[in-house]
Write a structure and sequence with these properties.
Structural class: alpha/beta
Bound molecules: ligand BJW, zinc ion
Largest sheet: 6 strands, parallel
Number of strands: 9
CATH architecture of the largest domain: 3-Layer(aba) Sandwich
CATH topology of the largest domain: Rossmann fold
Strand content: 15-25%
Helix content: 25-40%
Radius of gyration: 19 Å
Number of helices: 12
Order of helices and strands: HHEHHHHHHEHEEEEHEHEEH
């Protein structure tokens, strides 16, 4: 039986084997080469090849843990110890992980494009570790803590943090400096993101399932403002049809091919 006849042979596996058509990669390479202003929007998929679990999908984090229990302000108010246990566990898991070829290709793209902006939903800090500089972290950063009393935000890489960490300034309870469901994103970060999306000529959307707003609508927003929108993902997303280019495969394999 040929591989294409095998019902168990998924689209994602096929994409990994042969990758997207050479012409599609070349088309996107040309778009990026000619653009003055490029934005990349990344999600958990770009860090998957570093060993970071994604949220949704077969091995997704939300399959093992009920997000509603752990990534909401209500959960933290109800049981901060449990929520900190979850975040301490994730910090321990993330600490030894390194950025991958996908992150590094975006560093190189930032060097090549006159105006490059990286918008990430990821909280793992791997874009910074790779060397990207113009980064907007939409959902915060797991290596920062924020005081629930005085609001002070500090970087803290202690492993593990105490079960209920407290603020060095006022003694208040600390929380992870991340954005939970139902919370507003930082308005300044959001404004800067839309400024980039409004004026970019090309937008790369990499490794996000397109389920969480407002990031999920950013591709359509940029397209409505004239950008060529390209998606790189193992599989199609709810927005794929609306975009100009879809490259199915691993970010760490495809992104380096887009760099001169
Ligand atoms: C690969 C790959 C490889 C794998 N290569 N690809 C409008 C309508 C309906 C609801 C709302 C709305 N506006 C706002 C809401 C409410 C809510 C929301 O969106 N809910 C939806 C579930 C419907 N949004 C919010 O609450 C946001 N706040 C807000 O908008 O405030 C105003 C407001 C509030 C309430 C109502 C209305 C307005 C805040 C969202 C915060 C999200 N926070 C989290 C947790 C962060 C902290 C933590 O990590 O603990 O952020 S949730 C989680 O999802 C995390 C991620 O950043 C985010 C997105 O996930 P992502 O990156 O897409 O990951 P996956 O796993 O879903 O996808 C991975 C993809 O990679 C897959 O497609 C794979 O195929 C692919 N992949 N390997 C390429 N190697
Ligand atoms: Zn404080």
């Amino acid at each position: 039986m040929g591989q294409t006849d095998n019902p168990l042979h998924s689209e994602a596996q096929e994409a990994d084997r042969i990758g997207p058509p050479r012409e599609e990669i070349e088309r996107l390479r040309q778009v990026l080469h000619q653009a003055q202003r490029v934005v990349a929007l990344t999600g958990a998929g770009i860090s998957a090849e570093s060993g970071v679990p994604t949220f949704r999908g077969a091995d997704g984090l939300w399959r093992q843990y009920r997000a509603i229990d752990l990534a909401t302000p209500q959960a933290f108010a109800r049981d901060p110890r449990l929520v900190w246990e979850f975040y301490n566990w994730r910090r321990e898991m993330l600490a030894p992980l390194k950025s991958n070829a996908g992150h590094l290709a975006l560093v190189e793209l930032e060097r090549q494009v006159p105006e490059f902006l990286l918008i990430t939903q990821n909280i793992d800090g791997l874009h910074h570790a790779a060397g990207s500089t113009n980064i907007l972290e939409l959902h915060g950063n797991i290596w920062r803590v924020r005081c629930t009393e005085c609001g002070e935000v500090t970087e803290d890489r202690t492993l593990p943090l105490p079960a209920l960490p407290t603020c060095g300034t006022c003694g208040g309870l600390l929380r992870p400096d991340v954005v939970w469901f139902g919370e507003m994103l930082d308005t300044l970060i959001l404004a800067k993101a839309y400024e980039g999306l409004n004026s970019c000529q090309a937008l790369l959307i990499i490794g996000t399932s397109g389920n969480v707003e407002p990031a999920a609508s950013m591709g359509l927003h940029a397209k409505n403002h004239g950008a060529v929108v390209a998606e790189i993902n193992l599989e199609p997303t709810p927005q794929t049809e609306a975009y100009d280019i879809s490259l199915l495969g691993k970010a760490g394999v495809i992104l380096p091919q887009l760099i001169d």
